[in-house]
Amino acid sequence: MQDWKQDTEWNDALRKLGIIPELPKEPEPEEPIHDDGIHPEKMSLKQLEKAEDLFDEEDEIFFQFYKQQKLNQLRLNQQRPSFGSVVEITRQDWTDQVNKAGNNIFVLVHVYNDGFVCGIISSDELCSLINNCMSRLAPLHPFSKFIRGRASTCVENYPHKYCPSLFVYKSGDLIAQYVRSQLPSISCLKG
């Protein structure tokens, strides 16, 4: 009889059928996990330049690649239009500010109405909350446009019962719209 520890085709066939036991697996040598505390993906460009001396030759290629990638991203961001605030518009501004905003630019439009009460919650309260949220979000998303407009001066014959309304555009195309009935309740927004 053959030795079951030999690695032969016959023994492989017998192992598949469960007639002889599997060969014991040789343990693979474990590579030690080395963390030197340097995480280039979390560093700014200045920090990367200061830490350049800490990298050994093996990491130099990666460092140069990453540095170039960061520089390219900075150049790209400088070429992109930047907004960072909420702009009030009228009907005359709509085409330029919304439809012709530019390629790959998101535009969030809040159409509101002052002094309209519908049910328990006034339109003023909801509009005020949305305006407040937009004012906080605009600086955090400088490559998106945040626009608001009074319904009476922004959209001709816009029904008051739909205020507040939010419209989301990308590259001049409407991609989403939310009217008053689709917005969360006031208690949800305050909490």
UniProtKB/TrEMBL annotation:
This is Phosducin-like protein 3. It comes from the Eukaryota. It comes from Octopus sinensis (East Asian common octopus). One of its GO terms (biological process) is protein folding. Signal peptide: none annotated. The gene is LOC115228721. Belongs to the phosducin family. Residues 23-39 have a biased composition (Basic and acidic residues). Gene3D superfamilies: Glutaredoxin (3.40.30.10). One of its GO terms (cellular component) is cytoplasm. Residues 18-39 are annotated as: Disordered. InterPro entries: Phosducin-like_chap/apop_reg, Phosducin_thioredoxin-like_dom, Thioredoxin-like_sf. Pfam families: Phosducin. Residues 39-180 form the Phosducin domain.
